[in-house]
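Re-run with default settings, no changes from the original entry. Doing this only to confirm the output is reproducible before filing.
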Amino acid sequence: MVMTLIPFVIICLIVAGIAGSCAFRPGGPSVGEIPRYDAQLALSSQAKKVAFPLRLPATPEGWTTNSGGTVEIANTDGGVAVNLGYVTDRTTFLQITQSGISADMLQQFTASGSRNITGEEVIGDQVWAVFSDADAETLWVAQLPNSSVSITGSGSPEEFSALATAFSQAQPLPTS
């Protein structure tokens, strides 16, 4: 019985190898190239479509902007969120989200529910509410005059601060 299974297992391994369904790497997995996202093009286009000012933070040195998009926020009468994702030089991930809704609503949207403030960070003239929980990613949220912004992810406090600083130094993008 076992002898009849051996050719079957060998054939399955050959088919899986040809199909690319599996790979054997004696040294373990390797880190692939981080995808790149053209944030300038995407946000410049979105700035003309959304009803709130968008800012494009300068990407901190060694970081890669790797993702982005626009999401409609439920129960906000057409509110949208514009996201940018970053992989830091330590390969952690941070996402910045901008929206025309209130900071409280953005916090609930970003965190998928309400959370308690655990502190504040002041970056430049901007006060960021910090939501830190052992069971969830850290979240920073700030209210601006005509919009709100949040930062979330697996980054260190220094990385959150670097992205908040870059955001606070960015000017609103042209809307026309």
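The beta strands are 64-72, 80-87, 93-99, 119-123, 126-133, 136-143, 148-153. The first strand starts at residue 64 and ends at 72.
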